[in-house]
Amino acid sequence: MELNFYLTLLLGFVSFITFSLFFLFYKHRSQFTGNNLPPGKVGYPVIGESYEFLSSGWKGHPEKFIFDRMNKFSSQVFKTSLFGEKTCIFTGAACNKFLFSNENKLVTAWWPSSVNKVFPSSVEDNSNAKEEAKKMRKMLPSFMNPQALQRYVGIMDTIAQRHFALGWENKNEVVIYPLAKNYTFWLAARLFVSLEDPADVDKLGEPFQLLASGIMSRKIDLAEGKASPTQDILSHMLLLSGEEGTHMKEMDIADKILGLLIGGHDTASATCTFIIKYLGELPHIYDAVYKEQMEIANSKAPGELLNWDDLQKMKYSWNVAQEVLRVAPPVQGAFREALQDFVFNGFTIPRGWKLYWSANSTHKNAACFPEPQKFDPTRFEGNGPVPYTFVPFGGGPRMCPGKEYARLEILVFMHNLVKRFKWEAVIPDEKVVIDPMPMPEKGLPVRLFPHKKTV
User: Fold this and answer.
1) In a 3-state reduction of DSSP, which class is residue 82?
2) What is the DSSP string of 410-427?
3) Which residues are CB-neighbours of 43 under 8 A, at least 6 positions away?
4) Are the beta carbons of 319 and 381 closer than 8 angstroms?
5) Mind listing the pLDDT tens digit for each residue in 190-233?
6) What was the pLDDT predicted at 26?
7) Which is more confidently placed, 113 or 155?
8) How far is the C-alpha of 146 from the C-alpha of 330, rounded, in Å?
9) Cis (ω within 30 of 0) for the bond into 283?
């Protein structure tokens, strides 16, 4: 009798679990049914296809998730479920053009909850977010356009020289990725909040505390005339006011400055790391970059810093950097949210669905870049790639405002690097992982071979 009771209890438990799983799967899949939705697969309840999406990057091939589904569904738009959200993946140049051209019309930026926790203003109501975006777009050109950046080239060169003297010279082996992060963060700290001392830069490991105290001290300096509104972006933010005379809140300033520090740090450091990787693997490309950079170095007087005109001569070096951005884009893509129902490519995209554009869908597509696995800087000669195929900085109203700043810091880095060293990888064919940015699994350790004469 007792045995029958336990068997009945076990059967009831198994039946409950089976029914619950069936209900979860049914409810999950029912959310993705409707008239004229794009084709696709939606994975499991809650997690959807998030694991497949992320694991393709962990294995070093983020494009595999995209291309497998493009081929399977024969479509440039397909549905999936990522991070608990109903999602459509948009792939190809036409999709990029559509999303970038319809920013704040049919779509708007969307961030996962992990980003919202770091940047509080990203979850503010939409009207406030738009107002803050307008303020930022009004402010950033004062510092990020080519004319404004010209005055920073010498500062960048000075910091680069100090960086190589402290972290590279008199060393047989170095690990590139942390050094590249140190360089780009030092630059960002100097140009965004006027920190120059390496010890102070190191304290930015606790960015919120330092930014909060830095904002208060800068407000005092501005009031006393010790700081200039053109000194750095922080000073300009503190003085910037809207049409009604209101100033940005201190937490909003800390939020924006942290975003600029990250944008000017992580993405550029990843690019600098992969420049070293490919120059080390491809001697003929290194030789061409070295020739170009040494012509510039030899034209300078002893102790003379780089200037704007010097950077305009670095055409081949920038082509190399752009090819690095193509094969290893630091930003794999970004999310948008549909503001209303709309039809694209014959499919209905419902309001509230999340949309993801992928850089790799064009960067590693043979239709956009022949022999996409081949490293070939000549792709960027002449008119360069077809519009909306090369998108490492995004596009449209939300194109990265620091694009020109990134170009300068990368070229200054390349100049100071190749005129000092050649190198070879300690770990040949080191695995590359994407988490969330591409990076060599061990940070790219290299052996340095200094040139006999440093200019």
Assistant:
1) strand
2) HHHHHHHHHTTEEEEESS
3) 49, 50, 52, 80, 81
4) yes
5) 877 677 777 766 665 555 444 444 544 544 554 555 555 555 66
6) 43
7) 155
8) 22
9) no
